[in-house]
Amino acid sequence: MRCVSAGQKVQHWSNTLDTDITFGEDKGIKSYLRVTIRLFSIVVVVVVVVVVVVVVVVVVVVVKVVVVVVVVVLTVVVVVVVVVVVALVVVVAAVIGVVVVVVVVMVVDVALTVPVVLYLIKALN
Questions:
Q1: What kind and span of H or E run contains 22?
Q2: Is the CB of residue 11 less than 8 Å from the CB of residue 17?
Q3: DSSP state for residue 25 in the 8-state scheme
Q4: Whole-number Å distance between alpha carbons of 92 and 62
Q5: Which sequence spans correspond to the domains of the chain?
Q6: Which of 6, 14, 28, 66 could be cross-linked to 22 through a Cys-Cys bond (beta carbons 3.0 to 4.6 Å apart)?
Q7: In a 10 Å sphere around its CB, with 0-12 CB exposed, 13-18 middle and 19+ buried, how is residue 22 labelled?
Q8: CB 4 within 8 A of CB 23
Q9: Position 120 confidence tier, pLDDT thresholds 50, 70, 90
């Protein structure tokens, strides 16, 4: 490691920011601290922006997934309700149809049987 005398300029990693660090003087330390604070603030801003973007993307994706799940569940529920209602209507219609047929058959049977019975009663007397 080289020794640096007071007032000598040394090239530093921060030379991309067009700053030179001068050791042994207050100006050099202040410049180093200023560059460090600037770099730290840039890193903090970048990290905050990245975190905000990631959070927004995650929230948007979660909301989309929740909306899709809710729509699918509601669609399934509506389809099941419609199928059950149609099945009940068909069953009720079938029961009503059977009852109507039975009543019609009984009425026709009585209508046909009564004259025959009356004729037989008259014939036997």
A1: strand 21-22
A2: no
A3: S
A4: 45
A5: 9-124
A6: 28
A7: buried
A8: yes
A9: confident
Residues 6 or more apart whose Cβ sits within 8 Å of residue 6:
23, 24, 25
122 in helix, strand or coil? helix
Q: How high does pLDDT run on average in the chain?
A: 84
> Could you tell me if 14 and 39 are in contact, meaning their C-beta atoms sit under 8 angstroms apart?
yes
Q: How far apart are CA 1 and CA 11, in angstroms?
A: 14
Indicate whether this model's pTM tops 0.70. Answer: no
Q: Give the number of other Cβ atoms within 10 Å of residue 64's Cβ.
A: 10
Question: Tokens 């209508």, residue?
Answer: 111
Q: Is 118 exposed, middle or buried (0-12, 13-18, 19+ CB in 10 A)?
A: exposed
Residue 110 dihedral angles phi and psi, to the nearest 5°: -65, -40
The whole-angstrom separation of Cα 61 and Cα 69 is: 12
Number of Cβ within 10 Å of residue 38's Cβ equals 13
Tokens representing 88 are 């009940």
